[in-house]
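I can't quite decide. Please look over this sequence plus structure tokens:

:::
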Amino acid sequence: MVASRGGGVVTLSGESVVDVGVFPGTASAFIDVLTDGTLESDTGGIKAQIDAGTDWIIPNSAASVNYKVRFTNLVGDALTTPPDVEDAWVAVTETRSYGVFVNTDDREAATFDLEIRFGSGPTLASTNFSVDADNNTV
């Protein structure tokens, strides 16, 4: 979904983020919504911008605290560090991270829907993201 509002074009293209760790270490996989108008994948602390040409608002300078995000877990494990309550709109006043973290001999994975809107208006962009943190012994 692509929409224009607040001076920019809002787009989410989706991503699958996977981190494989080796226990007794850790594994983590996150999608970060940044205040600067970009999205990052974060796997074990290694960050990379997602789709620089489109996500989440172009031009990035059009990002503002008037934009809000909401996540809905669709399948899999509960997100281990959601900054907010599921299905609740929150302003992008700081980086919002959605994902899973494992520090035991285990694996957590989830698929969730991420939405963005301007103020109290309709959803401007929405898509699914998948995160998978696999931290098993060798």
